[in-house]
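Annex B. Sample input.
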Amino acid sequence: MDVVSVKLGATTLQQVDNCLEKHHFETRTDFLREAVRDKLRALEEENALRTLEKYFGAGKGKRITMKRHEEIREEVAQKYAKKFGISVE
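Annex B, continued. Sample output.
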């Protein structure tokens, strides 16, 4: 594994430190690794959408992110679970 040094401002570093325990990261390094992975994944998704648009055209409606798509699916699942008295916890 290669080593990369990163300089962060005091405010940003404080935000990272505040997130560590709240989101169950053991170290700053773990947090930053996950942040980099998330960013790479998001860029791959954007690239995939652009590729699809290139071949199939852009959708007529408002484009949404994968994260928003997942949020919508969760909202719908919660509504149906409530409607039919199903616990999804």
